[in-house]
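Example record

Each entry pairs one chain with its bound ligand, zinc ion.
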Amino acid sequence: MSTYTAKCMCGAVEVEVEGDPVGMGICHCKDCRAWSASPVNGFAIWPPEKMTIAKGEDQIESYTSSEDSHRAWCKKCGAHVYHIAGPLGVVDVYPALIEDLVFTPGLHVNYESTVMPMKDGLPKFKDFPAELGGSGETMPE
Ligand SMILES: [Zn+2]
Ligand SMILES: [Zn+2]
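Structure tokens for the complex follow.
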């Protein structure tokens, strides 16, 4: 089974995840936009127990953006490293930080909030798929 390592920009923090992500996609929500300072956020999710902090635990700071939702970054370089999304029961370890993971998004979530529509043929969920506690409704591109 593969293990992937996510490294922050300065290398002080390393996070390992075991096995392939259970999902990869693109989130358009306002929180992710503010957090990533970007029009969208590319995510890769694993069950939280698949993640371990391999290096620099004392360099990690985190912000509780909503109940049971913890967004963590490296105190040295400011790079965002992971987001424990408690209500969804997953951790998003940012695929942009994992060199040997090919980012292959399968869906878009929170598309109702989009500021950057994307015509890529992938399903566009209004909020989240039903398996993740969302409405399961999709929207036109
Ligand atoms: Zn760093
Ligand atoms: Zn989001």
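The pocket of zinc ion (ligand 2) is lined by residues 27, 29, 31-32, 41, 110 (CB under 6 Å).
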